[in-house]
């Protein structure tokens, strides 16, 4: 069983650009690095699961020691997701770097639902209409190719595609992706002792006052 984290190297101007403004590109990158670090830490130690980072860019010191890193390839996100599952094999659960509130227990439960019983896939809804996690018992590029990504209808389209492939889908809990300042505030509140919460507090979002930015 593999646990894939698909991510970009957290460089200024390449990540979390929707946080700018109020953040500077450097602050947004610091928030992204904290989110990625917290996410990767949660993947380490999940029982009987090998974490794999599928990365767009160069790895840095935020990669846990010994974690396997492979490069993303493909044009659009749909192709990159399909390639990640093909490269790693199955069964595998894939998550991104936008839900730093994930816990080891939550990931273990999601992996368990994929490998126990007769589910061919698992899907974790996100509050913005997308998904935060998807798992496949066996790689199948047709699950992703042509599905519109990063839109308010992504979850519906992805769920429909899974059913078209005659896969029995287990639904996971809904989580909030971090895209906007409001998202960063809400997620930071849910994990107040995390690196992510510290990075948000140190940014323009924190300096402006979390309550005022949230309104």
* Fraction in beta strands: 15-25%
CATH topology: Spore Coat Polysaccharide Biosynthesis Protein SpsA, Chain A
Number of strands: 7
CATH superfamily: Spore Coat Polysaccharide Biosynthesis Protein SpsA, Chain A
Roughly what is the average pLDDT, rounded to an integer? 94
The level 1 CATH classification is Alpha Beta
What's the SSE pattern? EHEEHEHEEHEHHHH
Domains (count): 1
Q: For the largest beta sheet, what order do the strands appear in spatially?
A: 3-2-1-4-6-5-7
Structural class: alpha/beta
Task: Catalogue the unreliable spans.
Answer: 211-215
Question: Could you tell me the radius of gyration in angstroms?
Answer: 17 Å
Shape: globular
Number of helices: 8
Q: Note the gap between the termini.
A: 42 Å
Share in helix: 25-40%
Architecture, CATH level 2?
Alpha-Beta Complex
Describe the structure.
- The protein has one domain: Spore Coat Polysaccharide Biosynthesis Protein SpsA, Chain A (Alpha-Beta Complex), CATH 3.90.550.10.
- The chain is built from eight helices and seven strands; from the N terminus they run βαββαβαββαβαααα.
- It has a seven-stranded mixed sheet with strand order 3-2-1-4-6-5-7, with helices on both faces.
- The radius of gyration is 17 Å and the shape is globular.
- The termini are far apart.
Helix and strand topology:
Blueprint: E1 2-8, H1 25-43, E2 50-56, E3 68-71, H2 77-88, E4 92-95, H3 104-115, E5 121-125, E6 131-136, H4 154-164, E7 169-171, H5 181-190, H6 195-201, H7 204-208, H8 210-214
Parallel strand pairs: 1-2, 1-4, 2-3, 5-7
Antiparallel strand pairs: 4-6, 5-6
């Amino acid at each position: 069983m593999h646990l894939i984290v698909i991510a970009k190297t957290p460089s200024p101007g390449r990540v979390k650009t929707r946080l700018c403004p109020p953040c500077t590109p450097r602050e947004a990158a610091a928030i992204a690095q904290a989110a990625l670090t917290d996410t990767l830490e949660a993947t380490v130690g999940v029982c009987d699961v090998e974490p794999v980072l599928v990365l767009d860019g160069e790895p840095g010191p935020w990669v846990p020691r010994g974690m396997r890193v492979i490069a993303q390839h493909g044009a659009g996100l749909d192709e990159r997701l399909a390639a990640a599952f093909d490269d790693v094999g199955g069964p595998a659960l894939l998550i991104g770097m936008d839900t730093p509130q994930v816990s080891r227990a939550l990931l273990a439960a999601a992996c368990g639902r994929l490998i126990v019983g007769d589910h061919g896939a698992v899907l974790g809804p996100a509050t913005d209409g997308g998904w935060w996690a998807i798992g496949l018992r066996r790689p199948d590029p047709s699950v992703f190719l042509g599905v519109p990504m990063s839109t308010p209808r992504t979850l519906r389209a992805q769920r429909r595609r899974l059913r078209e492939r005659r896969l029995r889908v287990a639904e996971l809990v809904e989580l909030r992706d971090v895209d906007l300042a409001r998202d960063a505030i809400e997620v930071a509140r849910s994990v107040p002792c995390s690196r992510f919460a510290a990075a948000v507090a140190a940014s323009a979002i924190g300096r402006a006052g979390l309550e005022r930015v949230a309104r």
